Amino acid sequence: MVAxxxxxxLCAHLLCFALMFLLIxxxxxxxxxxxxxxxxxxxxxxxxxxxxxxxxxxAWSVMSVVNHTLTLAAPIAYWLGSMRFFGYAAPLWRPLIAxxxxxxxxxxxxxxxxxxxxxxxxLAGISSLLFLGMTLTIIYGxxxxxxxxxxxxxxxxxxxxxxxxxxxxxxxxxxDGGLEALDMDSSFQMAFYIYMSSLAxxxxxxxxxxxxxxxxxxxxxxxxxxxMTQLLNRRGLSxxxxxxxxxxxxxxxxxxxxxxxxxxxxxxTYGHQAGDTVLCHVADVVRNTARHGDLTGRIGGEEFVVICxxxxxxxxxxxxxxxxxxxxxxxxxxxGTQHPLRCTVTIGVSRPFASTQALEGAMRDADAxxxxxxxxGRNRIELPRTPHFHPDPHAGRATPCQxxxxxxxxxxxxxATHQQP
Length: 421
Ligand SMILES: Nc1nc2c(ncn2[C@@H]2O[C@H](COP(=O)(O)OP(=O)(O)OP(=O)(O)O)[C@@H](O)[C@H]2O)c(=O)[nH]1
Fold this sequence. Notes:
Helix content is 62%, strand content 6%. The protein is an alpha+beta fold. Strands 2-3-1-4-5 form a 5-stranded mixed beta sheet, with helices on both faces. The chain crosses the membrane at residues 6-25, 37-54, 60-80, 92-114, 120-142, 149-172, 192-212. It catalyses: 2 GTP = 3',3'-c-di-GMP + 2 diphosphate.
């Protein structure tokens, strides 16, 4: 009687959570994070337990064959759903249908050749192996694709390994004592149902928690990035900087502020779309040239920023020169223009700064240097006005480049795009 109530509650939990997962997956639309797979898994397992209640005990019937197949199809759906959650494009129906057909045939074969107990032992054995596979996948995941969810994954691994152990024990018991081991009111089966009921209560809300975490992480990321170039925006820069300065003994940072030269003319001549292509190209060069760990951002129309972390003034100058030269050298293919475009940037360098609060000051510093660079002819790197800034004289071009103040940005075929007054 108690076992029947437990299994009944288990069914109710699973079917309710199936509905909840389905509603969540509808809400998530394009990015379902595997919630539709979890809905199906819960539905299949819920139905499997309904059939078990209807069956009452071990039997050789269509209901029993379907029950066993659903019992194993459910963890497969969960497994595939987890892959979806972590961004792998796992299919659902084909593997499930293929597995179900194979498993129905296997049941018929085992029932006829080895008998009823062997078929139930096969169910317990394969369940145990499936949950072992899941546990191992999670253990692999915490070292690779699920590093950011370490604590959650460890808890999942522990809970799921419990099902693996219980099914392995059931397998041994059936081999040892036959079908009597499956008596619903036996102490082992009671423990089994209590454990499964507890999991059915704990795991689905935990999965919802994971989805919530992913969604809030995505939102935070979106709020901190420029949608066009995917570089950090002001907010993203300042949050990343906060994290850096909260580490132990952080070195002072330097800020490079760069502005595309004569950008208005590119817009006016080739259109806004072409201007956007140029901005994306500049963003790519900045992103690919900065060192791993530096912060790269776009903080306004054609203004970009690199915050150099853990480097000295000489390193900052080398980086600034690499960015300046990289942008100057690379031609930009723009749809609708006969020749690729070229553009240049002027870069202002800040004094070193050592806190997030000092970011605004560093920005002003670099802006003043940038302004001087524009005045002095563009396509150059301008240093802060401070006696403490000592760039390595061999590190790159800290002096104005050869372009004259009136020289414009040009098309790669050599024609001018602008005449500076
Ligand atoms: N295509 C495009 N243009 C933008 C965007 N944001 C700002 N702009 C344009 O960028 C141009 C900036 O022009 P200015 O500030 O005059 O600077 P400039 O022409 O680059 O001149 P200097 O900086 O002095 O070399 C303006 O025409 C803005 O409309 C954007 O997201 N896309």
